[in-house]
Design brief:
By secondary structure, this protein is mostly beta strands. It contains one helix and 18 strands. It is globular.
Length: 261
């Protein structure tokens, strides 16, 4: 459990500066991270049924979030960005999946014909497997031709010749956090962002030595701070990005005062 206050965000100079009391050290507007989203691994999730973003409208992306596990199980994942005709339509879903007893992380990117699966072992990030009780930063980028997956700012997988995303007109993406079409996550998610550009060159700044920093300067479409803009109460996570749509907490998902620090 903990909280952090960071005085400088990305692109604003100097990096992070904080005091153990949670008060910003020095001048400038403070970026406070106090809350995360707690999920029970049974059916808790947070969702947006219609993002307003067409499944064939994006030419690049970055997905970034922090995750902490209470239990680690095969198939569980952090989120899904769904482009199918219903929540159970797998045809155009894009999602994370944990495999091999927590050692393998796979990102399923759907193009116009099939899944492109970008898988990497955590060994590449100096880890034997995901452990319980530890915060991890997870990030996936697509440049328009290449997929990359990072854990704690370390590249663990690359897949080339990935030239489109979903390729299906007439549908908007839905966002589901806490599940991945197979299983739910038992743990916590924090600082979830969908940025419509390839930010692979900024991965070290986004990771920020293990302390979340302000991603507003990267112009995210969807930026869910998991309670920090909602006073840690209620059943809504307010979007801080330029897109339209807040998350609704479902089935007991709740805010917690446990954050990366």
């Amino acid at each position: 459990m903990g909280s952090s206050v960071i005085s400088l965000g990305l692109g604003l100079g100097g990096g992070k500066s904080a005091t153990s009391s949670g008060r910003a050290a020095g001048g400038g507007g403070a970026f406070a991270n106090v809350y995360s989203l707690s999920l029970d691994g049974t059916n808790d999730n947070a969702s947006l049924s219609d993002s307003g973003i067409g499944v064939d409208s994006q030419s690049a992306y970055t997905f970034s979030c922090w995750a902490k596990f209470d239990t680690v199980t095969n198939n569980s994942g952090f989120f899904a960005v769904d482009g199918g005709t219903s929540i159970n339509d797998w045809t155009f879903n894009n999602w994370w999946r944990i495999e091999s007893s927590g050692n393998l992380l796979s990102w399923y990117h759907r193009d116009s014909s099939t899944y492109k699966i970008n898988s990497g072992t955590l060994t590449g990030a100096g880890l034997s497997a995901f452990a319980t009780g530890t915060w991890y930063h997870i990030m996936c980028t697509w440049s328009g031709s290449e997929l990359k997956t990072y854990v704690n700012a370390t590249l663990i997988a690359t897949k080339t010749s990935v030239t489109d995303w979903s390729g299906r007109s007439g549908r908007n993406f839905a966002i589901n956090i806490g599940l991945n079409r197979i299983a739910y996550i038992d743990g916590k998610i924090d600082e979830w962002a969908w940025i419509p550009t390839d930010q692979s060159s900024a991965v070290a700044d986004i990771y920020n030595s293990g302390v979340p920093t302000d991603l507003s300067s990267l112009s995210p479409l969807f930026y869910y701070r998991m309670g920090d803009n909602d006073e840690g109460t209620g059943s809504t996570v307010t979007n801080q990005g330029s897109g339209t749509g807040n998350l609704t907490l479902n089935n007991g998902a709740a805010f917690a005062t446990d954050v990366p620090s």
